[in-house]
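Hi everyone, sorry if this is the wrong subforum. Our group has a chain we'd like a structural model of before ordering constructs, and none of us has done structure prediction before. Sequence below.
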Amino acid sequence: MVPPASPTPERVLSIDPALRNTGYAVIEQCGREVRLVTYGVIRNAPKLLPSGCLVAIREQLCDVIRQHSPTVCAIESTIYVQSFKTAIALGTARGACLIAAAEFGLAIYEYAPREVKQAAVGKGSAQKEQVAFMIRSQLRLRETPPPDAADAIAVGLAHFQAADSNRVLQTERRRI
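Answer:
Right subforum, don't worry. Here is the predicted structure as tokens:
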């Protein structure tokens, strides 16, 4: 008798976009087991022009993709902001992230900030510190990730939770 094949792991590049501090993570799920492969924050100096920030974000995410071979990308969707200037900066940073993922042919899924916080903390209005603490606890990490990286990890968990909850049709509609 042939043993059943083990499930193929899904490896997601998850991103919390921002012009100055883009959080990223690569998370792998095989069956019910979730494993954090890598995480970090792409930090751009305050004096760097926005165009330079966009190039740095794209290049560093491309390096992460080359090194860790994710199969899909999950990104936090645009949030409501009161300032048009902030909205434009977030939108351009998000665009640099999407281009990096698209260059490698990754399917891209987006998740609302409330959905991401709900997946990590169980409450859609959680603060960044709460998200970071819960990420550390859920994944049994030795240290608490920086807030932007923790948010990116939470985006990946939201992606796995959406798939695990048999919400595939809803997720497919949000695929961009």
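For your construct planning: Residues 166-173 have pLDDT under 50 and may be disordered. The beta strands are 10-16, 21-30, 33-43, 72-76, 107-111.
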